[in-house]
Structures are given as C-alpha cells and as structure tokens.
Amino acid sequence: MRSEKDGIAQWDQEEVAKKLDDESITFVDIREPEEYNEGHIPGVPLLPMGEVPDHIDGMDKEKTHVFICRSGTRSQKVAQYAKQQGLDRAINFDGGMLSWDGDTKTGEEKRVQETSDIYK
Q1: Neighbouring residues of 60: CB distance < 8 A, sequence distance ≥ 6
Q2: Which residue out of 69, 78, 87, 91 is catalytically annotated?
C-alpha cells in the first residue's frame, strides 16, 4: 500500500516486492555494513547512510529511488534529504527490513564505491 509521510511517498513490503524487478526504480539499502551482511534484499546495493552525501549529486534525478533501512526511520530521513537535493522521486520503504518477508541474502553483495554502482 502506498501512503505519504512528511512529503515522502511510503511503500510497504507488498509494494516493494511488486516493484523489485522494475528497472526504472532504484533500490538502495542505507544501513550499516554489519546490518546489510546479516540479511538484505538480493540485488539491492549497500550505501551506508553516512556516505549518501558523497554520492547524492551523482544520483540520477530522473529515476525513482527507494531507500531501505531496518525499520523505515533512517530511510525516511535519507529520502527527505534526497528530495531536498533534487531527487523528487525519493521513496521510503516503510517498515524496512523488519517487515520484509521475501528472500534475503547474507554477506556483502553490492557495496557502492562509485555512484554509478547504484545503477548496476
């Protein structure tokens, strides 16, 4: 179900699961490496919250970005920040990984080093 909070679109687990294969949407996990390695959505890259400002200018403003964290609180803050920086289609995964009941993968899979890594 879609909703909105403080100007940011909110997607629940069902909406995220439906859109994972949509290549026009970019999913970004903003948790810490230890959290990501314990279990993340397969194929979703890790860009820790503290590193987002280093990459935000290079992120594609024409794309939809869905930010993911443990519960939806940190990703909401990142989505708000992203929107302030011109990413008008920033979305928060409300409920975060605590609400995720789909497949997960452990270990480091895709760590963002260069901004372009977000889109690979």
Answers
A1: 26, 119
A2: 69
